[in-house]
Amino acid sequence: MIEYRNLRVAVLGGGSVGSQVASLLLEHREELAARAGAGLELVGVAVRNPDAARDTDIPRELITTDADALILGADIVVELIGGIEPARTLILGALGSGADVITANKAVLASHGPELFEAAEQVGAQLYYEAAVGGAIPIIRPLRDSLAGDRVKRILGIVNGTTNYILDRMDTQGDSLEEALAEATRLGYAEADPTADIEGYDAAAKAAILASLAFHTTVPLDAVHREGITALTRDEVLSAREAGYVVKLLAVCERIDADGVEGVSARVHPALVPLSHPLAAVHGANNAVFVEAEAAGSLMFYGAGAGGVPTASAVLGDVVSAARRHVAGGPGVAESTHANLPILPISSATTRYHVILEVADEPGVLATIAQLFSEHDVSVEAVSQTVPDGQEGSRPTATLVIVTHEAAESALAATVTSLAASPVVSSVVSVLRVEG
Ligand SMILES: NC(=O)C1=CN([C@@H]2O[C@H](COP(=O)(O)OP(=O)(O)OC[C@H]3O[C@@H](n4cnc5c(N)ncnc54)[C@H](O)[C@@H]3O)[C@@H](O)[C@H]2O)C=CC1
Ligand SMILES: N[C@@H](CC=O)C(=O)O
Ligand code: NA
User: Fold this and answer.
1) Distance from the CA of 157 to the center of ligand 1, in angstroms?
2) Is the model's pLDDT at 208 over the cut of 70?
3) If you average pLDDT over residues 371-391, what whole number do you get?
4) The domain defined by 140-304 carries CATH number 3.10.560.10
5) Which positions ≥6 away from 401 have C-beta within 8 Å?
6) To the nearest whole number, what is the mean pLDDT of the chain?
7) Residue 199 in contact with ligand 2 by CB distance below 6 A
8) For the ACT domain, which residue ranges apply (predicted)?
9) What is the best residue among 12, 48, 66 to mutate for testing ligand 1's pocket, by most ligand atoms within 8 Å of CB?
10) The whole model's pTM is what?
11) CATH 3.40.50.720 fits 6-136+309-328, yes or no
12) Is the Cβ atom of 164 under 6 angstroms away from ligand 2?
């Protein structure tokens, strides 16, 4: 029998992900030791309430409420508490003591990444975070390592399982947002405060992480334009389907050239994706990250984006990597932010738009609307009109659905302002971006 060096592993948090990580560490102990080249001894699981019900049985003697004491003497610390504090302070404490840290916490990485990476570099430790984006899907390593020799141009990602699950249920089963969110929470997909999911904060944090990695530039969370799904109506979801699209909450990270300035833009918002695009086939709590790189072309990374067990897979992969690093010795590898590109505002982005208007059903209205688009340099690709049957009242209305060619955000915003003020437009019913 091989005698392995023993590494002490501390897990902080015993919720959906932490309880699964702790159990799998115990259950697969021998297999993991053989892969890592070191024994992985679970020295404890720090929780807030030792008597809380858990998804797995963790031996009582491993449970503690003293996270600070647990990290002392640990070689590898796994942070699965979530949120900013005390997660940030615990990660800094663990790194400061020379431990490698594994986290699934995109919120703390997106808001305090540079401070945490700097702390790791100071002591030659490594901060791993594969589970922080796309749950089980390998996407951090591919961007950090496999694509390190290429130039990423664009990333389109479905990176929040809860909202994808909700939009899918609204689209295919006619659920309301509230019904679908309750189910996503029951299944362990949602954040402790699900506002983070439905208002797009979670996806924005992931967009900041992906853009930073892809473009070798620190992209702060507050530079990510963010819109959630709470303003979306079922009618918009259904009318998108009728027009050959599906609505997804997308993270869009791009390297763009705005008036001769090369920079980076990151945004999160609902968008129409053509049914023919691979992202349209991502259902339930699954995630997918579609990467366009100069040499590699288009790549798609797909799989379970949320849920305790799948996320534990990514965390344990990082635990094995950290253990191998301990065995091999040498300092950790610093984050690559050398490109330091300027971060451009959403007004610099260009995309296509799907606009629904309720207009007066009168001669000349179409020409007036077309003129408003053209005055703002927005070119119309397609228009369709429906007139409801049996209208009563003096002024009949029609519904116009307009799809534009690529246009600047600023130009589209000005067009919408003019449309809203036009006497022939009764209402601007919906404005959604079209991606993919
Ligand atoms: N649930 C999922 O599908 C995924 C979660 N993540 C991330 O993984 C992390 C953990 O998420 P979940 O397990 O879902 O959260 P959770 O809310 O189920 O579990 C968090 C655990 O931390 C404990 N905790 C809170 N404060 C503590 C403290 N001061 N000391 C010790 N324990 C404390 C809580 O009691 C709870 O057991 C979060 O950062 C989350 O964003 C990432 C990918 C997927
Ligand atoms: N709440 C998140 C969990 C994974 O990061 C999600 O729904 O994607
Ligand atoms: Na991942």
Assistant:
1) 23
2) yes
3) 91
4) no
5) 239, 243, 354, 355, 356, 383, 384, 385, 386
6) 96
7) no
8) 354-433
9) 48
10) 0.96
11) yes
12) no
